[in-house]
Amino acid sequence: MALWGARFEKEADERLNDFNSSIRVDQVMYHQDIRGSIAHVTMLSRQGIIPEKDKELIIETLEEIEADLETGKLAIAPAAEDIHMFLEAELTKRCAKKGAEGAGKRIHTARSRNDQVALDVRMYGMEQCREVIKLLRELIEVLCKKASEHTETIMPGYTHLQRAQPITFAHHLMAYVEMFCRDTERLWDAVRRCNVLPLGSGALATSTYPIDREYTAELLGFDRVCENSLDGVSDRDFAMEMAAALSIIMVHFSRFSEEIILWSSWEFKFIELDDAFATGSSIMPQKKNPDVCELIRGKSGRVFGNLQALLTMMKGLPLAYNKDMQEDKEALFDSFTTVKLCLTTLIPMLETCRVNKENMRQAAAKGFINATDCADYLVRKGLPFREAYGVVGRLVHSAMEKEKVLETLTMEEYKEASELFEEDIYEAISLETCVKNRRITGGPAPEIVKRHIENIRKTFF
Ligand code: ARG
Q1: What distance in angstroms lies between residue 318's CA and the mean position of ligand 1's atoms?
Q2: Whose Cα sits closest to atom 2 in ligand 1?
Q3: In 20, 104, 299, 354, which residue has its Cα 20 to 30 A from 11's Cα atom?
Q4: Residue 26 CA: which ligand 1 atom is closest?
């Protein structure tokens, strides 16, 4: 009979049990469940709700259970309904063996699985956020290091995937660093809002025992207790927020992956992945494929799907707990697992990739990406920008017809376009000058990007 079987005349159908069970997914929370129980009984005994000796036996036994789970001496029963039921049954069994069955049977005083599961998922989610943050910091570190090696590596910057203006590889990488810093902040933010204790909400309306929720919160390291018990058991905002933050992370990984895929193509050849982080083809002997990036791009779909699943699962639920909410864990945990998996491969892949400076430079030398600078030159000589823009537009047109670039036009050709052009035009449109002259905060000039890297290192590490 199930722990809740007392009011039933029949055993539950096996098919119902299978369908109802969440142990496959929630067993990863055994540590949180045990920590929560230890804090709960500590509080119960301090309040005189359960005897001191029962508390001691419960804590000792729960710690034994945890150690046995960790060493594999105790296996989680796949037929159990969920991790909470499994641990309570195991505790009761072990207490009985020690001649104090009553102790184990006291653990669920003033508690419901509804506040218990809300507690466990919050604790587990916050821990997972911290793990992702740690990996994101590693990623940021690797990118800052790569960037610091390439503050002078000129490459074309793009808009519409058309060559636009010269930038550096460091400037490009640091754009991703900014995204990953925001991702880290978003996760901290989710943790901050999640750090509220739901335990003590009971099934939905707290309890009649004189429990001390503030004390439990203190024991578990929560910032405060939730102010409304209905909200305490039925709030899954934290899960949606975490899933949303993880989705945005996947958007960033996916965009980055897309660029790496392009950059490692024969058409670009800006970077080359290390052999250890690329794959081959079973039929085409020459192939070297960026599978890691493609998988990351592909996996973003399941993380977005998990967010959608959570939003949809929650949107029609009346207060307070409903069993629909059991579905929260599979979606949320899968998002954490996926993001961590992506990070553990992305980091070494980026660390080991080689940068082909010459190809970046060559690509930057074509496509008239210094045309804006050419117009700005005329502006400095007094021409209004729109007129300068027109002069350079015509210049680009005629250069294209002659299969030339701005750097290879003769002084006569420049003079024909405008009398304002002088010898110093060549210096003004050199790619190095174009990059160096953009020394506004946020710009690609080496000194500015170096300062950015320094700031990140100072504030983030
Ligand atoms: N396994 C359940 C879940 O994950 C635990 C809470 C069950 N509560 C209940 N009243 N049936 O949501």
Answers
A1: 16
A2: 326
A3: 104
A4: 4
Q: What residues have CB less than 8 Å from 118, skipping those under 6 apart?
A: 198, 199, 201, 232, 233, 235
Question: Domain ends where: 73, 105, 137?
Answer: 105
The one-letter code for the residue type at 255 is: R
Q: What is the CATH number of the domain that holds 52?
A: 1.10.275.10
pLDDT, tens only, 236-293: 999 999 999 999 999 999 999 999 999 999 999 999 999 888 888 887 888 788 999 9
Count how many residues are written for the chain: 461
pTM above 0.85, yes or no: yes
Ligand 1 centroid distance, CA of 106 (Å): 19
Please give the single-letter amino acid code of residue 53: K
Active site residue 265: no
User: How far does the centroid of ligand 1 lie from the alpha carbon of residue 10, in Å?
Assistant: 21
Question: Same structural domain for residues 196 and 232?
Answer: yes
What digits encode the pLDDT tens for the residues 180-200? Answer: 999 999 999 999 999 999 999
Rg (CA), the chain: 31
Closest-CA residue, ligand 1 atom 3, reads: 326
Is there a single domain that holds both residue 80 and residue 95? yes
